[in-house]
Amino acid sequence: MKHENRVELNDVVIRFSGDSGDGMQLTGTLFSDTSALLGNGISTFPDYPSEIRAPQGTVAGVSGFQVHFGNDKVITPGDYCDVLVAMNPAALKSNACWLKQGTATIIIDSNSFNEKSVVKAGFKSLDPIKELNLEGYNIVSPDIVTMTKEVLKDFDLDPKSIVRCKNMFALGMCFFMFDRPMEHALNYIENRLSKKNPLIASANKLVLKAGYNYASNTHELANTYTVLPAKNLPKGRYRSINGNQATAWGLIAASEKSGRPLFCGSYPITPATSIFEELAKRKDLGVKSLQAEDEIAGICTSIGASFAGNLAVTTTSGPGLSLKSEAIGLAVMTELPLVIINVQRGGPSTGLPTKTEQSDLNQALWGRNGECPLVVIAASSPSDCFHYAFWSGKIAMEHMTPVLLLSDGFIANGSEPWKIPSMSEYPKIIPPIILESPEGGFMPYARDAHKLARKWAIPGTKGVEHRVGGLEKDFLTGAVSHDPLNHQRMVDIRAEKVLRVKDFIPKQEVIGADSGDILVIGWGGTKGHLQSAVNELQSESHEVSLCHFNYINPLPNGVEEIFSKFKQLIVCELNSGQFANYLRMIYPQYTYLQYNKTQGLPFTITEIKDKVVSLLDN
Amino acid sequence: MNDKYKYTPDNFKSDQEIKWCPGCGDYAILNSVLKAMPEVALELKYKHERFTFISGIGCSSRFPYYLNTFGFHSIHGRAAAISTGVKVANPLLTVWVTTGDGDSLAIGGNHFIHAIRRNIDINILLFNNEIYGLTKGQYSPTSVLGKVTKTSPFGTVEHPFNPGEVVLGARGTFFARSIDMEVELTKKCLVSSAKHDGTSVVEILQNCVIFNDKTHYSFAKDKDTRQDNTIVLKHGEKMIFGKNKDKGLIQIGMKLMVVKIGEGGITIDDILRHNATEPNPGVHMMLVNMKYPNYPVALGVIRDVVDVTYDDGVRDQVESVRSHGSIHCVEDLLNSGSTWEI
User: Fold this and answer.
1) Given pLDDT bands bounded at 50, 70 and 90, which one contains residue A4?
2) What is the SS3 string spanning A436-454?
3) For A301, which of B85, B110, B333 is closest by C-beta distance?
4) How distant is the Cα of B85 from the closest Cα of chain A, in angstroms?
């Protein structure tokens, strides 16, 4: 019977929202993983508060998880949602602005919309639907808590644990609504929960099925929908991956390819912590992780490990990067390989710990004393964090320089299906390690002619005992030197060494036609949104292309060829114009328009399109 | 047979011109280090290339330049953190930190206590001259209360740290103390510290001839003064001191007391016997806190306790997880967990 009303859709966005203790992250993950297993294109975006448990029922405590799934590759979690699951009034209040205008379905737990909760969420009246002007939407409001209790009435569980299963009811309804099988979720619950507490596992499974059956038995949902598997995805083995996990794995891959053990000295900080957690798990691959006493010790232990011959990394976010600045200077001065990962969040200061922003670019490029250049790279999607973390390690070791890899809260926590690469697709990494003293004696600051990298003379190697440090060094011997001309020479060659990385990275590419009316320029984690906007504009016959940067310092070759062929250039970034100003400095011959946003949120495709269209109309 | 570990002080000397002030106590310390390293190499079977010296900032931190070993003259206060990374990355290295009272007890205090807490196997030489020398004479965290310096023209109004107390408070497993002029004693302390598994701290009371001259003179001026006003502790031996070896320490309640053997019915049997290996830090704490003139200043190895080390822990954990794990390479990792075919 249900099949008669099944509507086929190209893509759907669901936003699960509730109190931060309601398990919405798990609910969303189970839905997205199920859809990924069906072969859909997927992109997800968790949106959670920085407090672990903000006061229950308040808007500040709302946790959300958005899933975008489609019958083609999906590259953003979507601007607005087709379905909003709101487990309490506060969730509805804080997420109503993300509803797809007029057409969205709202699933609410009517039991949780009682007077107390409505007041707590800060509504002026007792009718949140009316107050938010949502009467025109398709609202489904089952008594989820009542039914959950009914299903579990024979379970010997305390009332709190019973009510906590209510998210599974909502998930079951969504599974029915979008024609998804429950097997993956049931297996997951079984594997994760049954060892700890088999009763809780059975309860969750039962409530999940009850939600599914409820949706199927009643006619509350007028239609059911399906999204067919993506046809154009390349064949192969896939897995789901988030940005921080991919970053950690990319570093491990660089360690394997170089034969250098991986060392990570870090201090926990949101939203970077899970990179460090993932590395700490990987003792099976020989990873040494050290939870330092502070951010400074995080990077300093890593610098020590680098001096001793490990691939050394440290992970952090904005405020932590500030604390690491002096030590980054030491790594630049001693010309040791080091990967510094900065998962950007809203700033300044403590700022918005769980929200995304791209406002640490200036700090990455310039935030140190003295002339202190290093390589800056930015990842642009959850899965390409693997690629850029690998390349950060490769460049750091082969060019003997610190590399600062920028990620952000959006791609760090977002996940997507990833076609698992074969390690044979990745290049070798050959660090310039010196194995014995050369004839005529070892010169610690002698350089190779192409990269200008000095040798990595690792303690324990006979005959290459030498001293490094933060004081200026003699051009060859590495002895302390205050000679004016030597300092000039060293400043110049450290800059030249970083600049020459240009010749070892891919040429800059343009997405779309190589000439036209408008070139959208972006960098880092905004790629999905910018590319979606540009694709849509192109399909509407506008002459718009995208030039998206991953290599920030040095910029790749080929940039001017691209920029010169467009009538207008617009730099879109989640800050007040840091990359635009950087481009103005390096390529002053062009005029750069800007589109900037600092709301702690990703771009929406709509706003980018509107901006570009307004420029085209002028 | 042991020839391959046989070195002379000259093997550890670098060709760099030494730039400390004439008369600086650091010259004597350098001497002790140059004498100690060949002994360490021979006794512990360390090849020359395993020696690594790491420093922060300050006069003491110039040390690595004057040694022909692997060296890292880093940034202010961070030597303990950097050397922690070095040791974890390669536990085969013998890692030495040269640092001062400003470097390790002020700006680097956090790294100092946490290195000690972890008990990572590094050897810290803490030069204590109770002043900031390199910046030309400001008070340090070990300057005595009321000390007049450029930044305390009317005297300091803050209490100093006693480094030994900090080390013991941070769960230190090894603490020794010497005086720059006591080259032989410093050397012995350094060799003992090298033999200790875990973080060892050797405090060396050092004279800054320019900005804090004679700061330790009341008890350390010359051999005679030192004999009467300091006590060199040796594990297993009675706590006796003085030119005539007639003074000793006894314990009364929670306090130590100086007594004269033969007076008031005190015999040698009443005198405490030094036990550096006692895990309970009670007596060690009293010893490090002895201040002249009420007490002799305690020198020698005061504490040397066996405990697990951080570097061993890291290595053992990696080895154990490795031997049980099912993931042996990145390819395994990428294909682990839930995957699907398209």
Assistant:
1) low
2) CCCCCCCCCCCECCCCCCE
3) B85
4) 4
Verify whether the Cβ–Cβ distance B89 to A308 is below 8 Å: yes
Task: For helices A605-617 and A527-539, give the axis angle rounded to 10 degrees.
Answer: 50
What are the chain B neighbours of A288 within 8 Å (beta carbons)?
A: 88-89, 314, 318
Tell me if B322 and A309 make a contact (CB, 8 A cut-off).
no
Task: Answer whether residue B326 is part of any domain.
Answer: no
Q: What region does B119 belong to: left with phi over 0, alpha with psi -120 to 50, or beta?
A: left
Q: Do A239-425 and A516-617 come out as alike in CATH topology? A: yes
Domain ranges for chain A: 2-226, 239-425, 516-617
Asked if the structure places residue B222 within a domain, the reply is no
Q: How many helices (H) and strands (E) does chain A have?
A: 21, 22
CATH architecture of A2-226: 3-Layer(aba) Sandwich (3.40)
Q: Do B71 and A252 touch (CB under 8 A)?
A: no
Model confidence at B215: pLDDT above 80: yes
**Bridge pairing between strands A288-291 and A516-523:** unpaired
User: What's chain B's length in residues?
Assistant: 342
How far is residue A254's CA from residue A260's CA, in Å, rounded to a whole number?
8
If one looks up domain A516-617 in CATH, what number appears? 3.40.50.920
Whether residue B320 is contained in a domain is answered as no
Please give the backbone phi and psi of residue A346, each rounded to the nearest 5 degrees, phi first: -65, 135
Unique residue bearing structure tokens 């850029």: A388
Q: CA A371 from chain center: how many Å?
A: 30
Is the Cβ pair B327, A297 closer than 8 Å? no
Name the residue facing A330 among B74, B331, B337 (closest C-beta).
B74
Q: Which spans in A269-354 are helix H?
A: 273-281, 295-307, 318-334
- What is the nearest CA distance from B54 to chain A, expressed in angstroms? 9
Cα–Cα distance measured from residue B293 to residue B280, given in angstroms and rounded to the nearest whole number: 27
- Asked whether the predicted pLDDT for residue B148 surpasses 50, the reply is yes
- Cα-atom radius of gyration of chain A, to the nearest Å? 27
Of A288, A312, A479, the CB nearest to B318: A288
Contact A469 B86 (CB under 8 A): no
Looking at residue B166, which CATH number applies to its domain? 3.40.50.970
Enumerate the residues of chain B whose CB falls inside 8 A of the CB of residue A29.
none
Measure CA A486 to chain center.
42
Question: Per-residue pLDDT for B40 more than 70?
Answer: yes
Report the chain B residue with the minimal C-alpha distance to residue A314: B85
Give the number of domains in chain B.
1
Phi and psi at B257, nearest 5°, equal -145, 140
Average pLDDT for residues B4-13, to the nearest whole number? Answer: 96
Assigned token pair, B139: 């008070």
Q: pLDDT tens digits, residue range A18-58? A: 998 889 999 999 999 999 999 999 999 988 777 766 788 89
pLDDT digits (tens, 9 = 90+) for A149-203: 999 999 999 999 999 999 999 999 999 999 999 999 999 999 988 888 999 999 9
Which of B50, B57, B85 faces A304 most closely, judged by CB atoms? B85
Rounded to whole angstroms, the Cα distance separating A331 from A309 reads 14
Q: How many CB atoms lie within 10 A of CB A225?
A: 17
> Is B220 a member of any domain?
no
pLDDT at A436: 93
- Which CATH class name applies to A239-425? alpha beta
A and B: number of Cβ contacts within 8 A: 209
**B119 within 8 A of B173, measured Cβ to Cβ:** yes
- Nearest CA-CA distance, residue B31 and chain A, Å: 19
Q: What is the dihedral of CA A153, A155, A158, A162, to 10 degrees?
A: -70
DSSP A22-68: S-HHHHHHHHHHHHHHTT-EEEEEEE--SSTTPSTTSGGGEEEEEEE
